[in-house]
Predict the 3D structure of the following.
Amino acid sequence: MEEPSPLKRAMIDATAGAISGGISRTVTSPLDVIKIRFQVQLEPTTSWALLRKDLSAPSKYTGILQAAKDIFKEEGLQGFWRGNVPALLMVMPYTAIQFTVLHKIKTLASGSSKTEDHINLSPYLSYVSGAVAGCAATVGSYPFDLLRTILASQGEPKV
């Protein structure tokens, strides 16, 4: 079977990365929204109040199931996908860049564009290839991550 041109191979890798990233991000969005709500909720800030268990302002979210019920009750099912579009705008380029750069680096390291030949790379070269691909993907998608976090952390009323 004939190998695709480098440009066609890059497009295949980018498309595969974008699609897989989009699907996995959409499926896991409810858990991500709950996680972000826990991260941004206000907690008592003095250690003395925590030691005395003087929690005059109790946390809004105290457990995963309780948080899920509250989000559903206050915002409906769509609340679990709040910020998902900006997240997709972050994840899809991230995984597209990561897949493409990873394949290109492994091609350079192995001297072959065939994926079967990439399996024979040393663990060190595989690690470095993945690290460089992850760095490139992070730099390319960071602005979208910031926007996603801002939107996903909003409850009701919206800010």
Summary: Residues 62 and 122 are 46 Å apart (CA to CA). The helical segments are 6-40, 47-52, 64-75, 84-110, 115-118, 123-152.
